[in-house]
Write a structure and sequence with these properties.
- By secondary structure, this protein is an alpha+beta fold.
- The protein is built from 10 helices and 9 strands.
- Strands 2-1-3-8-4-9 form a 6-stranded mixed β-sheet. The chain has a 3-stranded antiparallel β-sheet with strand order 6-5-7.
Amino acid sequence: MKFAKIDFINLLPVTIYMKKNIKSNQLKAIIEYKKSYPSAINKKFKSRVVESAFISSIASRGEKALDYGIIARNEVKSVLVVPGEKYEKDFQSDTSNALAKVLNLNGKVIIGDKALKFYHENNKNDFIDLAKAWQDKYNLPFVFARLSYNKNEKLLKKTMKDFNKRHIKIPQYILAQYEKRSGINKKDILEYLKGIDYDIKLKEKRALKLFFKLAKQQGI
């Protein structure tokens, strides 16, 4: 199974879980090798270079997917718009760029670890948290990515069947690595992860359906 992962802090619990539960060293190596940012992973998935991945929800339309994703039920802290006169997309994103348009927000979209750093280094009046803006408008969580697949459904289901965010403890040495890489302290990383969920249930499915409808209306 060729698996790709988004190389952001928000998938740390899933990454650690998969490393512990996948026995094949070859597969572990593939997971590490096929890591990148969301828009690049979307392209790899669509071209079938990889067989499964957390892909941007906007790219998951029409694709097979398990009921796992990257979900925010209030503010997300790592998907922001810095208000401005013109809309400016983040080249690493697909869903967040679309969400800014759906919410009719002008400005610069920033996502991922750099956005989380921006969140902690700036006044909250300097940016709009896109997940919070969506929640305020539609009273629904927002699903930024979905665990999609085009092959090896049974293996993927078997790999993920015991995943539970609450049971995942992130080792201190990994937190230290991400702290050094991102410039975000370990305490803020752990606090951020409390606001990220991964189980797609009824409300999340409603949110996806609404988002797809609104995106289509915008020609996305």
